[in-house]
Amino acid sequence: MRRYAVSYALAALLGAASAQPVGHVPSSKVLDLLGTAQRRILVYVPYLTDLSFADALRIAKNDPSRPKLQVILITVPFFAAKSDALSNGLALAGVPVVEAQVSSTTAYVLVDDRLFSSKTLGRVANANDVQLMSLSDTNTFLGWFKNAAKAGTIITAYQAFTRIGGNK
């Protein structure tokens, strides 16, 4: 049943006919891959509140041994504006954070060429519903991500600073 729910969520998000999870993976595997990614980390998380996940993104972006690594986060404006959203801290740490109006509550994380989906990844530590998605889903996600990033707005350091209460 969960497999079909994940398939439906990706299909709804990306406009694809169907999405096909390949299998379950522990969230620790995704965190490990963030630590070794060489080309890109593209993330859509509506509401980023998991400190270990946010920290892994920050470390990856600022790792001097991976200067060509592309790290981008897309999030939802309503949640990003909350003072406890960790996306604001990432914007201050140099991670490009894009706000876009996206209706999906499922998180998608692309690490190099592997796409993962989860209802809880980025929101809770040790997410237990992470799915590895198929290559065709990965290609569909790349197109969606590119369009969403273009349509969205990048959070400035000043916006992020004021959201976390730095202007009081």
UniProtKB/TrEMBL annotation:
Organism: Deinococcus xinjiangensis
Top-rank taxon, per record: Bacteria
Keywords: Signal
Protein name: Phospholipase D-like domain-containing protein
Signal peptide bounds: 1-19
